[in-house]
Amino acid sequence: MAIRPPRPGPPGIRHAAPRTMLHALWSAAQAALTALALTACTALPAVFDPSAPASRPPTTTAAALHRLVTDGAPGAASLVTRDGRIGASRFATAGVADLRSGRKMGRLDHFRAGSLTKTLVATVVLQLVAERKLALDDRAGARLPAGVPVTGAGSRSDLRRVTIRQLLDHTSGLFNYTQDHRLSEQLYGSGFGAHRYDRYAPAALLRTALDHPPVAAPGARYSYSNTNYLVLGLVIRAVTGHPYAAELDRRILGPAGLHHTSFPGDDPALPAPHGRGYSLIGDHRVDSTSLDPSRAGAAGEMVTTLGDLNRFFAALLGGRLLPPRQMAELRSERPTDGVYGLGLYATRLPCGVTVWGHNGDINGSYAQSAGTADGRHVVSYRINTDAPARPADGTAVLTSEFCAPRT
After folding, report:
1. I need a surface site. Which of 116, 129, 286, 354 has the fewest CB within 10 A?
2. Is residue 115 annotated as part of the catalytic site, yes or no?
3. pLDDT-based confidence at 85, cuts 50/70/90?
4. 192 with 286: CB under 8 angstroms?
5. Is 74 helix (H, G, I), strand (E, B) or coil?
6. Which one of the listed residues 89, 115, 380, 400 is annotated catalytic?
7. What tens digit of pLDDT does each residue of 351-377 get?
8. Which has the closest alpha carbon to 261: 229, 308, 209?
9. Would you give the distance in Å from CA 182 to the centre of its chain?
C-alpha cells in the first residue's frame, strides 16, 4: 500500500508518500463535473448539470498538468473553484486515464484518495469534541473498543500514554504500520500481486504497529504515521457505536452532498466511471486499479471525485462543518512547529499566498486539495500513479492557480 509518510520537499509542500514514477508522455483533454458546496446546517444549492458546456480551463493550470505528464504520470487532471461557485468550476486534463484504450480523464471519474481520508476523519473527531463526547486531551487507550490492543511487545508502545490530539497531529510517536518491512512488501512492494486482495482488520494492523518501538515519546515531535488515523477510526466507533465510515457518511457525505464519495471497506472495485491506476514495482509497470482497500481503512480508503473534494474543502474551510473553536484547533500547527494541524496543513506558495488542505496516495493514485482560508477558492488535482516524480510539479499546479492574476 502506498499510504506512506511525507518526504522532504520544497518549502510549502508536504507529501504523504514517496514513490518512483512512471516514465511516459501522453497528452489530451476532456471535461465533466458534478458539484456543489454545502453543509449540515445550511440549505444545499442546486446540483450542477454535467451536460452544461464546460468553461475553458486557465492555460496556466493546463501547463502545470502537462508538466506532471511529461515527468511520468500517465494522466493528470485538476478542478478549480473560485468565489464559491462550485457549479462553475473549471476542469483541465492532460495525458490519459487508460494506457491501453487512450481514454482521457473525465471530471466525473472516481479515484482512490489515500490520505485525504484523514481530513474527513479529523473533522468528525472535532465534531465529537464540540459535542463534548470526546476531549482532545483524552487518552486514546481509554477511548477504544473492547478487545483492541493498547500496548505492544514489552509495552514500549502504549496507547494509554497517547492523547487524541497527538493522534490528530502526528505527534504520538507511534510506528507507521505501513513501514513494517514484511507488510510493506505485501502492500506496495514485490508481494503486491500475491497480496493485493488480502483483507486486513484494523486491530491486526494496529498490533503490527504497536509491536514496533515508538519513533519518539508521545508529544515529543511530529512524525507522520498512518497508525494514528487507524486508531482514530476505532475511537469514532467506540464513542458513537457506529463504524467510522458510517459516521462520516451521516455527518459529512450526506449533509454536504458528496454523492460520489465512499468508503469501500474491502470492496476492490471502483465505481463507474473510472480510469486505471498504475504503479512501478521494481522495473515493472503494474495496473494497480483493483485492490482490497482495507489495507488503508481510516488512514486512506476513501474513493471520491475532484468535484466532491472541492465541495468538501469549500465547506470545511468556509466554517460550515465545525464551530469556530474547533476550526481554530484544526488549523493550529504550533505543536508541530508549523508542519501540520489536526488533519490539515498549510502550503505556503512562492508568491506568498498560504492555502490549506491535504494530499494523499495509495497504489496507483495521488491527489491533493488546497484552498484559501475562507474556502472560496479551491483547487483539487490528481494523477493516476502513486506520487509526482518531482514534488515541485505538484506545487506548480497550486502556484499556477493561486498565484496567477485573476481572469
Report:
1. 354
2. yes
3. confident
4. yes
5. coil
6. 115
7. 999 999 999 999 999 999 999 999 999
8. 308
9. 24
